[in-house]
UniProtKB/TrEMBL annotation:
Family: Belongs to the D-isomer specific 2-hydroxyacid dehydrogenase family.
Domain D-isomer specific 2-hydroxyacid dehydrogenase NAD-binding, first and last residues per copy: 106-291
SUPFAM superfamilies attached to this UniProt entry: Formate/glycerate dehydrogenase catalytic domain-like, NAD(P)-binding Rossmann-fold domains
Pfam families: 2-Hacid_dh, 2-Hacid_dh_C
InterPro entries, sorted: D-iso_2-hydroxyacid_DH_PdxB, D-isomer_2_OHA_DH_cat_dom, D-isomer_DH_CS1, D-isomer_DH_NAD-bd, NAD(P)-bd_dom_sf
Keyword vocabulary terms for this entry: NAD, Oxidoreductase
Organism name: Pedobacter alpinus
Domain D-isomer specific 2-hydroxyacid dehydrogenase catalytic: 7-313
Name of the protein: D-2-hydroxyacid dehydrogenase
Length: 315
């Protein structure tokens, strides 16, 4: 059995596969060459870069399994693959903690202007130190503030736990049921159930000091001009979910008007080339879709994926 790990795989996951007698090729084959080369493999693992579309599936009748390291399956024609008898697996929970921590990286960064200081210190630090100090004098604490979480699934819940730990109130909106409390494990093994307030979208928009999105790709943005009209003055926005969930032009307008005080974005409409207006915006902090890019998440993804693939190929 042979697997092509086209977007890489954690070494521990690779070893698990090899120990199970499965050969693992970690060479990255360019997308345009895959149709002529992938049929030599029994399975492929991808992250978000490699696309496994209908035409590739049709070109590779030997393919038995497709593994996606991570959550979103937007880059795979899942139903078509399954209709051809190909198993499709992903690792939805492996990166939740890492993504939630990136949300807080953006939040702490946003309320203390770290993104802007990082841009200006190398240029103005020596000549305008006190001026910059003054510009960043109005930071705020997260403690005691309300965070509105849109999408209360795996990552939304992990984000809520961090928020509760930071002394924030959590307002949650989801299309489905939301638990009234979340179990929190503190150091020393102490467990507490902390309350979560389930609200309507309008209440979340009106009352949140910060809003974080944790929903899948949506055809129509969930935060657009109409929603930005309803938000609290000076709200901070974080999006570590999927491009397309925020209307980027409406966000820029809301940042320019001061309605939104800052935005921390890990995902964009047009990855990997976000709008220049976002890249250069003084109130926007950007990361290149790195929510799951931690050693811990990659190891969990690799191990989970390896076990799933072994189940299909050796089962
Ligand atoms: P999940 O399926 O566990 O949770 C998503 C939740 O959103 C569900 O509870 C669903 O009911 C809710 N939802 C869907 N549409 C909604 C809407 N319009 N309004 C309100 N709620 C809605 O998913 P998850 O594992 O928590 O992942 C959330 C998002 O994060 C996904 O888009 C995923 O692709 C993304 N993600 C990003 C990174 C990254 O690197 N930035 C890494 C992993 C996952």
């Amino acid at each position: 059995m042979r697997i092509l790990a086209n977007d890489g795989i954690d070494p521990i996951g690779k070893k698990l596969l090899e120990d199970a007698g499965i050969e693992v090729d970690t060479n990255n084959i360019p997308q345009e060459e895959l149709a002529s080369k992938l049929n030599a493999y029994d399975g492929i693992t991808v992250r978000s870069a490699t696309k496994v579309r209908k035409d590739l599936i049709d070109a590779c009748p030997n393919l038995k399994v497709i593994g996606r390291g991570g959550v979103g399956m937007d880059n795979i024609d899942v139903e078509y693959a399954k209709s051809k008898g190909i198993a499709v697996e992903n690792t939805p929970a492996a990166s939740s903690q890492s993504v939630a921590e990136l949300v807080f990286t953006h939040l702490f960064n946003g309320v203390r202007f770290v993104y802007d200081a990082n841009r200006k210190m190398p240029v103005e630090g020596g000549t305008n130190f006190n001026g910059l100090k003054k510009a960043y004098a109005k930071g705020v604490e997260l403690k005691g503030k309300k965070i509105g979480i849109i999408g209360f699934g795996r990552i939304g819940k992990e984000t809520a736990k961090l928020a509760l730990g930071a002394g924030m109130d959590v307002l949650a909106f989801d299309l489905y049921d939301i638990p009234a409390t979340l179990p929190l494990e503190l150091s020393g093994g102490v467990k507490v159930d902390v309350p979560v307030t389930k609200v309507s979208m309008d209440t979340l928009l009106a009352e949140s000091d910060f809003i974080s999105l944790h929903i899948p790709f949506t055809e129509k943005p969930v935060l657009g001009a109409v929603e930005f009209e309803k938000v609290k003055q000076g709200v901070g926005i974080v999006n570590c979910s999927r491009g397309g969930t925020i209307d980027e032009a409406a966000l820029i307008a809301a940042l320019d008007s001061g309605k939104v005080s800052f935005a921390g974005l890990d995902v964009f409409d047009n990855e990997p080339t976000p709008l220049v207006a976002l890249l250069q915006h003084p109130k926007v902090s950007l990361t290149p879709h790195i929510g799951a890019a931690t050693n811990e998440a990659q190891e969990r993804i690799g191990v989970e994926l390896a076990n799933l693939l072994i189940g299909h190929l050796n089962g």
